[in-house]
Amino acid sequence: MFGFISRNIITGLITLLPVVLTLYLLYWLAMSAEALLGSLIQAILPHDWYWPGMGLITGLFVIFMTGLMMNAYLVQRLFAKGEQVLYHMPIVRSVYPAIRDFFDYFSPTTRKEFKQVVAVTLGDTGMQVIGFVTQPIPERLPASFRDDKSVLVYLPLSYMIGGYAVLIPRNAIRPLDMSVEEAMRFTLTAGMTGTGPDHPSHHNH
Angle between the 92-105 and 73-87 helix axes, to the nearest 10 degrees? Predict the structure, then answer.
């Protein structure tokens, strides 16, 4: 009886915690933006002009404008120069690159670089790993690294943000019916979360 109760409690926690934590993170970000920017707005504007939620809207606008400006080459260069300062600061240089790489992993720009999700066969071992074809056109590769019968595949590492860009023969890969988002999530968690709604655990009942 106790095992039955504890098992269902654990199942309930596993089911609800991701939802609760995601909602709480969004709530925390919204409240933090409102508290920080709301106070700044109240200090600048007349008190009667301020209304609750203005800080959050301002924060979303600032984020949107930042993303818009990052499309400009000059802004990208200036941002890159600023990042170089962070990369040379004690302590910060140990933390910032890891955080930066983590968010770059999920950025729309990074996802666009992945053309196709594939399974890569490792020699005669029978083992397969998930990879992303990043460059299928040989002419776009360095001349000394070019092979007309191979494609460039990115092999991500689980839990560790990073991976390897490997030139792999075309006959050693096969396309997978997975979206880039599903494959990223699957490899990042080493498959422990499944691939989404079609995962067998959702059909046990």
Answer: 140
pLDDT reported for residue 161: 63
How far, in Å, are 13, 58, 134, 142, 157 from residue 137 at the CA level? Answer: 47, 43, 9, 11, 24
The predicted pLDDT at position 105 comes to 59
Q: Which residues contact 162 (CB under 8 A, 6 or more apart)?
A: 101, 156
The backbone torsions φ and ψ at residue 183, rounded to the nearest 5 degrees and listed phi first, read: -65, -40
| 150 Cβ contact partners less than 8 Å away, ≥ 6 residues apart | 138, 167, 168, 169, 170
What's the pLDDT tens digit per position in 54-97?
Answer: 888 888 888 888 888 888 888 888 888 888 888 888 888 888 87
